[in-house]
């Protein structure tokens, strides 16, 4: 197996090393991003739900940027929501500000009972921009 081509956002490598996972892996023209939550720099959850969702997107966008992508390059999204029946509308208000214009990526939403103290998590796959031809 070849070495994994890991993408680290600025200033958060220690958090990923402590928790023993990669924030994102480049492979075959795609970027596979680990689930991102609304964690503060020390890894603790942001307590306010709307702020937590914004921070999750900020954390996601930092990884996408480190790989040379934006949310416009995202082709597939999976969201995990604790108690979606009571939180979906609040979360989706915030999501709309990050989602961009149509056409939108595919989406899978999963209701869960626990996210390590968080209420929202977003995991994506993005198409890496084509690299310019050597010349």
Describe the structure.
Helix content is 30%, strand content 29%. The protein is α+β, with helices and mostly antiparallel strands and 135 residues long. It has one domain (5-127): 60s Ribosomal Protein L30, Chain: A, CATH 3.30.1330.40. Strands 1-2-3-6-4-5 form a 6-stranded mixed sheet, covered by helices on one side. The longest helix has 18 residues, at 49-66.
Short description:
This is RutC family protein YjgH. The protein has helices at 13-19, 49-66, 84-99, and strands at 5-7, 24-27, 30-37, 74-82, 106-112, 120-127.
Question: Mind sketching the topology for me?
Answer:
Elements: E1 5-7, H1 13-19, E2 24-27, E3 30-37, H2 49-66, E4 74-82, H3 84-99, E5 106-112, E6 120-127
Parallel strand pairs: 4-5
Antiparallel strand pairs: 1-2, 2-3, 3-6, 4-6
What is the C-level CATH assignment? Alpha Beta
Binned strand content: 25-35%
What is the count of DSSP helices, taking H or I runs of 4+ residues?
3
CATH topology: 60s Ribosomal Protein L30, Chain: A
Using the CA coordinates, give the radius of gyration: 15 Å
Helicity level:
25-40%
Coarse morphology = globular
| Side-by-side strand order of the widest sheet | 1-2-3-6-4-5
Give a quick set of tags describing it.
single chain, 135 residues, alpha+beta, 60s Ribosomal Protein L30, Chain: A, six-stranded mixed β-sheet, 6 strands, globular, deaminase activity
């Amino acid at each position: 197996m070849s070495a994994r081509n890991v993408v680290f956002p600025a200033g958060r490598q220690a958090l990923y090393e402590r928790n023993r996972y990669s924030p994102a892996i480049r492979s075959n023209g795609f970027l596979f991003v680990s689930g991102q939550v609304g964690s503060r720099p020390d890894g603790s959850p942001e307590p306010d739900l709307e702020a937590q969702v914004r921070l999750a997107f900020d954390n996601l966008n930092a990884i996408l940027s480190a790989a040379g992508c934006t949310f416009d390059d995202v082709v597939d999204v999976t969201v995990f929501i604790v108690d979606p029946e009571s939180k979906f509308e609040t979360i989706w208000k915030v999501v709309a500000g990050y989602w961009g214009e149509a056409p939108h990526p595919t989406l899978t939403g999963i209701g869960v009972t626990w996210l390590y103290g968080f209420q929202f998590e977003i995991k994506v796959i993005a198409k890496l921009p084509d690299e310019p031809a050597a010349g």
